[in-house]
UniProtKB/TrEMBL annotation:
Domain of life: Bacteria
Family under the similarity heading: Belongs to the bacterial solute-binding protein 1 family.
Signal peptide location: 1-35
Lineage of origin: Bacteria, Bacillati, Actinomycetota, Actinomycetes, Micrococcales
One of the Pfam families matching this protein, by short name: SBP_bac_1
Protein name: Extracellular solute-binding protein
Amino acid sequence: MRITNRTGLRPSRRIRATVVVVAAATLVGLSGCSAPDAGIVTLNFFQFKPEAVTEFASIIADFEAENPGIRVIQNSVPDPDTAIRTLLVKDKVPDVLTLNANGNYGELARACIFADLAGAPVAATVNPAVQNIVQALGTCAADGAKEVNALPFASNASGILYNPTIFAQNGVTVPATWTELVAAAEKFKANGVSPFFCTLKDAWTASPAFVNLGGTLMPDGFFDALRGEGANVSSGTVSFRKDFATAAQKEVDLFRYCQDNFASRDYNAGNKAFANGESAMYLQGSYAIPAIRANNPQASIGSFPYPVTDDPDARVVVSGVDVGIAIGRNTAHPAEAQKFVDYLMSPAVVTGYSEAQSTFSPLANATPNTDTALAGLEPYFTAGKIVGFIDHQIPAAVPLVNLLQSLVISGDAGTFLSDLDSEWSKVAARTTTQRQGK
């Protein structure tokens, strides 16, 4: 069943895009069961972000106006990870896809589900540091050569959000080292100000701090080496217990500065509390800014990268590709699909989306985002001093967020690291990768 939604689109654009919202049980419709219009090529566009349906509908409308021989059907589903796997089982890979560039994407890329975009001229317009984040998640190694299976369309950044007004009122400057961060937290605590508002009712909210701490401190090539060990983590050269002990302990140390009820507060409560000035800092990234402003458009928001060590020059920003764009490897319309991807990756479209969704442009030489809330992170992103989200390297079957939740509540770093190694080993022992024929 198809439900067509043509409402809620920006009046400044001509809207001729069709939005299809389906449940996983009806995914057969995503492969295009309706009769095509004569002379019109129809592309199935799998789009995973429900909050961006309207934005993409407007983009599609403009594309179709410039390309009257191509029609794009945007398919947005409630559970995109399940939906895409259901489509793969049915051998119905969409023509063009947006996907969050995470561990699930990496598994699909290694299974050679997506086309190789390395030779597309538009690939050369991407910031190499951002493309490297996508590449590190996994690629199809057809004929021994690693491919480019997705291009980054929009990036986020994870740092520490802070309230500049509260900092000024308490005479605290933005910390550049770990020692300064702890000292700032201590000063706020002594002054009766909550240093951090934490939201452990939603287990995943323990992850942003961990990915920054672990991503900065882990040795180069850690996850490649870990995957190479297979299930033999305990006897391997790298492991979470061997290489993440400092990161785990610093995670515990940070959460000691949360408000008293942090275990019963959720993410929505955290966004509202920080918007209303109930803490000096918030352990969330750029993706939280729109939600904070929805609670209080005048919220005082600044940002800075995690000062994980006492070397200010060691600071980096953890960045993820919030939206990656791929083409189905066996699409029946490769030229038209590439034309649509080229349009999506054009500077005007990428910039417009970034401004609307509070993201960073992944294009080389892009105009920096001028949002004042991002000013503390933007220079690192533009300079390429970024690392990928390490939780994107960890299979979804590993209950990382639940383990992190237990870690920050119990303070038991040793058990957390042992459990993480054990869960990784279990998944590695039962994981095989199936490759789609080229």
